[in-house]
UniProtKB/TrEMBL annotation:
Official protein name in the record: Eukaryotic translation initiation factor 4E family member 1B
Organism ancestry: Eukaryota, Metazoa, Chordata, Craniata, Vertebrata
InterPro entries, sorted: TIF_eIF4e-like, TIF_eIF_4E, TIF_eIF_4E_CS
Any Pfam family matching the protein: IF4E
Any one Gene Ontology cellular component term annotated for this protein: eukaryotic translation initiation factor 4F complex
Length: 242
């Protein structure tokens, strides 16, 4: 138990140092209890696991297949694009995901021009990253009125699809997901690494559409980053649709 406690202490010290470095992103964090979600219970379980039970026994955390990083973007035209992108936190367990989710602002509460991005650790949420540049995205556009009725549910479902590896063997094709809060229309997109992998891309699109509970009458499109980069979003041609 002593070794376990020592390991926990080292981990906590490391986390504290990381939090100091990530101070620029602290503005998006909120006080605990902002969401009435399983996160409250899981946050408590995580604390119990760290502190040890009555007999000092560490409870088992539930590891995710991948380690994930949450990024926050706030548009400031006076700064370079990359300077507006901040790493908020990283996690690799179910409990840490819910602890994170219950501490940040809901997407619907962000101001226009802000983004959240959840990507596998090591992949930056930009087209230029070597693991993104050959890929593309499944794009879901929302009407203005959907921000307060649908956006948060759809974004949470997107996050759960990612961390739960919901796309079977094609989950390895997933790089991450982004939610854009914009005046005209909010958007959610799932990014994959290889636009030419038709079987994988289509499987991800079909499963994703089903998980979001979208009507069969709604069509969502997949755009290659290379096409989007050379044209405005409205003109980029869909490579695939489901």
């Amino acid at each position: 138990a002593g070794e376990a406690e020592g390991g926990t202490q080292n981990r906590e010290e490391k986390e504290e140092k990381e939090e100091e470095k990530e101070g620029a992103a602290a503005a998006v964090l909120m006080t605990k209890g902002a969401l009435n979600l399983p996160g409250d219970l899981l946050s408590q379980k995580r604390k119990e696991a760290q502190d040890g039970g009555p007999q000092g026994v560490r409870l088992e955390l539930h590891p995710l297949l991948n380690r994930w990083a949450l990024w926050f973007f706030k548009n400031d035209r006076s700064r370079a694009w990359q300077d507006n992108l901040h790493l908020v936190t990283k996690f690799d367990t179910v409990e840490d995901f819910w602890a994170m989710y219950s501490h940040i602002q809901l997407a619907s509460k962000l101001s226009s021009g802000c983004d959240y991005a959840l990507f596998k650790d090591g992949i930056e949420p930009m087209w230029e990253d070597s693991r993104n540049k050959r890929g593309g995205r499944w794009l879901v556009s929302l009407a203005k009125q959907q921000r307060h009725s649908e956006l948060d549910r759809l974004w949470l479902e997107t996050l759960l699809c990612l961390i739960g590896e919901s796309f079977d063997e094609h989950s390895r094709e997933v790089c991450g997901a982004v939610v854009n809060i914009r005046t005209k229309a909010d958007k959610i997109a799932v990014w994959t690494r290889e636009a030419e992998n038709q079987a994988g891309v289509l499987h991800i699109g079909r499963v994703y559409k089903e998980r979001l509970g979208l009507s069969t009458k709604i069509v969502i499109g997949y755009q290659a980053h290379a096409d989007t980069a050379t044209k405005s979003n409205s003109l980029a041609k869909n490579k695939f649709v489901v």
